[in-house]
Write a structure and sequence with these properties.
The chain has about 375 residues and is an alpha/beta fold. The chain has 11 helices and 13 strands.
């Protein structure tokens, strides 16, 4: 199944830090995009959507003495302003993701053609909300803070049985999260327990912390989510949101980590310097006796020692499949130089013989014990 999560994705969590001010929101999107454009990563902006006032219980809609009733009410955007921010993200070439907190918001997000749903940790097992979300053909990213492993198993199974393209994020729901509480080994646990599911990291760490992103990269996280903000005299920043300069440092750390981690999934290509540095410590092949031109060098005619010449046959080159014939006379303790040898590699011939015999036995339906040896006589 094609997936949205095949390449690393860095998500800037706008949350309510636009402060209900569309112009401030536009400024944030543009300034963080400017930082993002310096890096060769995929980026997304993430919004949150609550249907206000319906999201809040009728008895509490006027209770501005309750911190988050006031916060959500004061920062709510009208639909036109919300659309303006969403379209600006798309115009700048970034992905646009949204966290809905109620069923009406789910339908709104789908109608606005966001690129993915995000499920907040507090909604991870909100089954009525999940049932609404899976009605739409959008990828899903779900944070797991505070969820037991059995709950995560259930949600993963729920999405898998509906053939959803989804990812789960390790997350700790403390704002901010102290270094000692980051629990980054959960990334390893998730990757082992859910090998076919993309795993990411949603962070609420101290904004100046750039070490955890390096560790998350090294552990194979594919999604990285961080709260962002621009502090002004009118709009103070909270303790876990990052400024443009802090995001720049965070992304530089991620880029450095990817450079240090190098190639993934296959053996890396060795540099000429690496090969040269290693070769100088390898043993060379020397003859134990005088050898005449045209002689075949046998294992009992040789010994291995160090140091050796640059063009010398190495102990690493010596095997039962290789045949070495001298082109000139050699004295005892001389090194075997490639320039003085005719080299014949019989390994491919042996491999072809083995393959032919295996095919013959297979076609003839002759039972052969698994421990049987094959002897080639010539």
């Amino acid at each position: 199944m094609a997936t949205m999560f095949a390449e690393p994705l860095f998500i800037f969590e706008l949350a309510n830090n636009h402060m209900g001010d569309v112009n401030h929101g536009l400024r944030m999107i543009r300034e963080f995009h400017k930082i993002a454009s310096r890096f060769d990563f995929r980026f997304a902006f993430k919004f949150q959507l609550r249907t206000i006032p319906e999201f809040i219980h009728p008895h509490y809609r006027d209770r501005m003495d309750i911190k988050y009733v006031k916060r959500f009410t004061d920062t709510a955007l009208v639909k036109e302003d919300f659309m303006t921010l969403h379209q600006e993200v798309k115009h700048l070439g970034m992905l646009s993701i949204c966290t809905p907190f109620d069923e009406i918001a789910v339908a709104t997000v789908a109608s606005m053609e966001f690129d993915a749903f995000k499920i907040a940790s507090c909604s991870f097992t909100d089954w009525p909300l999940l049932e609404e979300i899976v009605k739409y053909d959008l990828p899903i990213i779900a944070s797991t803070a505070g969820s037991e492993i059995t709950e995560i198993d259930n949600v993963v199974s729920f999405f898998q049985h509906r053939a959803k393209d989804f990812a789960i994020l390790h997350c700790v729901g403390e704002y901010p999260t102290q270094d000692s509480q980051l629990q980054l080994n959960q990334i390893d646990m998730f990757k082992k327990r859910y090998p076919d599911i993309t795993v990411g990291y949603s962070t609420h760490e101290e904004p100046d912390n750039v070490e955890s992103i390096k560790l998350a990269v090294a552990k194979g996280s594919m999604i990285f989510e961080k709260h962002v903000a621009i502090e002004t005299e009118a709009y103070p920043k909270n303790a876990y949101s990052s400024t443009p300069s802090q995001i720049n440092n965070w992304l530089e750390a991620a880029a450095q980590a990817y450079a240090m981690c190098g190639v993934s999934g296959e053996r890396h290509v060795f540099s000429e310097k690496e090969k040269s540095d290693l070769r100088q410590f390898k043993r060379g092949v020397f003859v134990k006796r005088d050898v005449k031109a045209g002689e075949i060098i046998k294992p009992e005619d040789c010994y291995f020692s160090w140091p050796k010449d640059d063009d010398q046959l190495l102990a690493n080159d010596f095997s039962k499949y290789m045949q070495f014939t001298t082109k000139r006379d050699l004295k005892k303790d001389d090194g075997l130089l490639f320039a003085h040898l005719h080299v014949q590699n019989n390994r491919e011939k042996v491999h072809q013989i083995v393959q032919s015999v295996n095919e013959l036995v297979k076609q003839s339906n002759v039972p052969v014990p698994g421990w049987a040896d094959l002897e080639i006589s010539h």
